[in-house]
Amino acid sequence: MHHTLNDAQWGQFERDGYLKCGKLLDERELGVLQQRIDDIMLGRADVPYDRMLMQLDSGTGKYNDAGEQTRGFKGATLDYRKIQDLEYDAKFLRYLQRPVFREICDRLLGPTTSVSVFRAMFMNKPAMRGTWLPWHQDRWNFLDRDPLITLWTALDPATVENGCVQVIPGSHRHGIINPSHHSAFLTEEQTAEQVSADKIAWLELQPGEVVLLHNWLLHASDVNRSSTSRRAFSVCYMDAATRTTDGAGFPIVFGEGALDPNDLTDRFTS
Q1: Residue environment code for 16-34, b if the CB has 16+ CB neighbours within 10 A, otherwise e
Q2: Residue 133: how many other CB atoms lie within 10 Å
Q3: Are 186 and 218 in contact (CB under 8 A)?
Q4: CA distances (Å), 117 to each of 87, 101, 149, 161, in order?
Q5: pLDDT, tens digit, 9 for 90 and up, residues 217-248
Q6: Residue 255 vs residues 75, 113, 115: alpha-carbon distances, Å
Q7: Domains of the chain (ranges plus CATH)?
Q8: Measured between alpha carbons, how far is 13 from 19 in angstroms, rounded to an integer?
């Protein structure tokens, strides 16, 4: 399967801040990742739970009511909202190291740049649950440079009804909206100024489809009002030279010193 993005697609990404890249998972591959994330949530996977950040979903749909974001298993349930550090799972690592993703990183970071992941995470809106994610940009003020690339893969249908990502096309071109503010979330005043119903694009996707996102693109997502879960896998790639204010680096996935799926414990072979 040929997944090279053409100049017109790159132009669209630069203009809009997002680009649908098509379906990159076939049914078998999709089934492997769907089963794997359910196994991780249910405690059946041989993964290093103690190093994975795991957060339970809210019972109310309010962002501030979601569970604590801390490392470690929170019980066998499919009602997790977020699970990070999935680069330490062989199946998800193999997927995020696909050549098409290396190609995208080469284009946006430079072909000789080693690439790390800021976060490789599962995002979930369980059926008839889910949490409202307010309007924001993906930015972090404890890094020495801004990671700008996220690749988001739908593991279930992403629809308006089940809380697909909403974006304001082109909003990434305005830069950081509140650079001095600790939070990436917009204030009520900024939301009123930047967001209106006529500007919103809804990123509906089929399972296995991938969308490339610029991290400064304004985005949000609603609760899930359907009987179908909205599972997704989101990877933020960045220059491997990126450091925290404390000097810490991040797991390398492309280039010298990259994680090797064959070195990770993987009891559930496909």
Answers
A1: bbbbebebbbeeeebebbb
A2: 20
A3: yes
A4: 8, 12, 10, 30
A5: 999 999 999 999 999 999 999 999 999 999 99
A6: 36, 7, 6
A7: 8-255 (2.60.120.620)
A8: 5
SS (H, E, C) 82-97: EECCHHHCHHHHHHHC
**DSSP E strands, the chain:** 18-23, 53-56, 70-71, 80-83, 115-125, 133-136, 149-154, 165-167, 201-202, 209-214, 219-221, 230-239, 252-254
9-60 pLDDT tens trace: 999 999 999 999 999 999 999 999 999 999 999 999 999 999 999 999 999 9
Please list, residue by residue across 158-167, b when 16 or more beta carbons sit within 10 angstroms of its beta carbon and e when fewer do. bbeebbbbbb
For residues 3 and 20, what is the distance between their CA atoms, to the nearest angstrom? 12
Evaluate whether 217 touches 18 at the Cβ level (below 8 Å): yes
Question: What pLDDT, on a 0 to 100 scale, did the predictor assign at position 179?
Answer: 77
Q: Are 182 and 29 in contact (CB under 8 A)?
A: no
What is the rounded CA–CA span in Å between residue 243 and residue 235? 17
